[in-house]
Amino acid sequence: MTDDEDRITGILLAAGGGRRLGGHPKALLTHRGRPLVEHAAEVLRAGGCARVHVVLGAGADEVRARACLPGCVLVDNPAWERGMGGSLRAGLDSLAGTGARAALVLLVDQPGIGPEAVSRVLGAYRSPASLVCAAYDGVRGHPVLFGAGHWAGVAAAATGDRGARAYLREHADRVALVECGDVAETYDIDTAADLARLDPAGGRG
User: Fold this and answer.
1) CA distance readout (Å), 125 to 11, 128, 157, 178
2) 98 against 19, higher pLDDT
3) From CA 12, how far away is CA 105, in angstroms rounded?
4) Nearest to 108, CA basis, from 20, 30, 200, 203
């Protein structure tokens, strides 16, 4: 890993309240024998992020009590109910003064995305001006890497549940797409039917 890559911080957005899952925080859904937030944080580390910041919201105290997240910086988003945009801003704000040159953002409710996709996106980093997205059959998805030069613009555009979509759309000509469809799946765990995609009792592999 280069020095620049070592200064890319993973941001895990794990604040969702699981409204369509009966109000059960997504971070605490069980996958492979542990809370989903643990699995996703490990995906970021295994993919090459030496530092990981986890943004919590719904059930934050319970997540702290039940999840094992050693070495992670836990960031609270008290306004998590207003949507993903606030969590993204909280994650980016938490990087102030850390020396990070880029943030690689992953969503906690996409367990089909593993370390291989994270590694590919991280490997496309070139400078603080980098803007990189995983692609699935050419369609933009997660994870997304924002060089530090984009943070202010992303934060300003991140409102409601839009996250960074508006910013990425406005800067589409600068986005480097990295195909990951052969190593990852980009489904979300949003509804009760989606829970079948989790492996509650599986091994930790």
Assistant:
1) 15, 8, 22, 11
2) 98
3) 6
4) 30
Q: Which residues contact 194 (CB under 8 A, 6 or more apart)?
A: 187, 188
- What is the arithmetic mean of pLDDT over 70-85? 91
Please state the three-class secondary structure of the chain as a single string: CCHHHHCEEEEEEECCCCHHHCCCCHHHCEECCEEHHHHHHHHHHHCCCCEEEEEEECEHHHHHHHCCCCCCEEEECCCHHHCHHHHHHHHHHCCCCCCCCEEEEEECCCCCCCHHHHHHHHHCCCCCCCEEEEEECCEEEEEEEEEHHHHHHHHHHCCCCCCCHHHHHHCHHHCEEEECCCCCCCCCCCCHHHHHHCCCCCCCC
The answer to whether residue 97 scores a pLDDT higher than 60 is yes
Q: Find the angle CA(53)-CA(128)-CA(130) to the nearest 5 degrees.
A: 95
- Residue 23: pLDDT band by 50, 70, 90 thresholds? low
Q: Write out the two tokens for 4.
A: 């620049």
d(Cα 80, Cα 61) in Å, to the nearest integer? 14
The whole-angstrom separation of Cα 48 and Cα 1 is 8
pLDDT digits (tens, 9 = 90+) for 107-133: 999 999 999 999 999 999 999 999 999
Rounded to two decimals, what is the model's pTM? 0.93
